[in-house]
Amino acid sequence: MSPPTPSPQRAFHEHSTHPPSYPATTSNWTARRQNPSWLPRASWTLARRHLGFKEARRGESVGSGDFVPHAAAARLSGHLFAPGKRLLCQFSRLDKSRYPVLWVIGLFVIQAIPAAIVRASNLEEGRIIAIARGAMEDGHWLTPFVYGARFAERPVLLSWISALLGEMTGGVTLWSLRIPHLGFFLAGALLIYSLLRSSTGKSAAIFGALCWISMPMVAAKFINAEPDIVLSTLLFAAFHAWWTGTITKRMTLSRWSGITILIILAGLTKGPQPVAYFTLGVGAYLLLKRREQIPEFIVASILAMLVVCGWYVLVYQPQDIDYWADHSRLLTMRGLALVRDHIDFVKSILVETLPATILIGPAVVIVLRRWRTSGNDLMFAAVLYSLTCTLVLVLWPGGVAARYAMPATMTLAVVCGLMFEHCRQRSPRVIVSALFVSCLIFGGLLLRAWVAMPFWPHLFQESRIAGKAIAAALQDRPGPLHVVTNSTEYNMLVYVRGPIRSVTLDHLARLKTSGVAVMLPVEQAALAQQDPSMRLVDLGSIVSMRTPYRIVEIQPSEPR
């Protein structure tokens, strides 16, 4: 048996206190230093490092001349990463957790509860609720209407769900939207955890869920219930069902039927284009690895597209073709504007998908090295799902926005979990970097949810304040509230009970009875100029989403 190799620390100590006696045949110091074969490897490495630093202090040459800077950089890097390695060590202890899924639920809840309660309606929430009210109050279930104005841009599954919940609770409110949205949000985090647990340990699965919740693109949805989370969760559920059936070799008719239904629901959320994340990603994997599933995959995709396209056929009107082409962002930009837009898209994706941006490069390298020889490779499937359609968006001949890549975030989180399991021992520093960024973003979200929102709620409730002012102005004035089409901010109308009608300035000028309207100051001036005999009474000024509006009572000068 060979003698044990001394530890690096012991070798370094022995060399420092008892310098070795060099062979007598070696008279030249440089030759002795460049011929370390007679020393144990660990002893020589540390001795060379020690002597190198001493020579540098004496101003002597150190062989190639670059050893000292590299050693100093290595020591500095080690000190910088020491706290991160301790963080990684503590996080890895989650492998011993008895109920790890509770960590995923807890991470979600502490972010969702204060944000959902304090934050008033914002961004697209007002429009979604307006469509839900149109379905429940006016019966516009098939073709969406926004306070009487037709909105046939795309199917609106989230509005239909909100309307059904409103039917059961007695009216559509902000919670009719946020409750199902948060349900899909939590389901998405649990699906990521579940898929990772089939291939990794507990801490890696929790890390994947944490990465998804912490991505800036995803974290914004804690205070903004839009269809993107619903769409992403439905598509990922289809991916989860397909992958589970693939690795268990149980791709039965019922499983393909379930996948088809999930794709249909995803297509009815935002139209057929985002479904390409599933069809292109999974289709590429099947083409490269599992061609025997291609016939069933094609049938499922065709059936799903037929149902989704059927909605467009049912609501079709002659002017809708141009409308839909504009919504699909086809040829909406050209030249330098298109180039700048796509550069902004790439930059936004790199920032808004952190910490996955740190890990996707190494993951692609790993996949390229082993995809031909590996069997069912979850990382390969997740990378294809994440990048194939995203690359199509980069090359899309029209305007694109970062939120269009939302479905990719869930498989990027899976990649993060797999990389955690694969690299935390081999390349801990890249995992430390991703973990640190995740915790940093998550901590910032906690400060927003538990400090900024409770202590400065007025900064997050602008639309609620404006809506209550409108409701107060309507208390003693019967009749519907009139809003001007295409210029009204819908989030403030979430807090207004009673009928609301979207009209034009020409319609307001022809009113025969008094009515209350909300409009921009320039629209009030235009209405007064259009009919000088009309009396416009200011009932108040409001601001919603940083846009000033006027609450105006319109009093015709005489019966018309």
From TrEMBL:
Location comes to: Cell membrane
Can you tell which superkingdom this protein's organism belongs to? Answer: Bacteria
Principal location = membrane
- Which InterPro entries does the record associate with it? LipidA_mod_glycosyltrf_83 (IPR050297), RgtA/B/C-like (IPR038731)
One Pfam short name: PMT_2
Keywords (alphabetical) are: Cell membrane, Glycosyltransferase, Membrane, Transferase, Transmembrane, Transmembrane helix
Q: Where is this region: Disordered?
A: 1-29
Segments traversing the membrane:
101-118, 175-196, 229-247, 297-314, 349-368, 380-398, 404-420, 432-456
What is the topology of this protein in the membrane according to its UniProt annotation?
Answer: Multi-pass membrane protein
Can you give the residue ranges of the Glycosyltransferase RgtA/B/C/D-like domain? 154-308
PANTHER family found in the cross-reference section: MANNOSYLTRANSFERASE YKCB-RELATED, MEMBRANE PROTEIN
Protein name per UniProt: Glycosyltransferase family 39 protein
Question: What broad taxonomic lineage does this protein's source fall under?
Answer: Bacteria, Pseudomonadati, Pseudomonadota, Alphaproteobacteria, Hyphomicrobiales
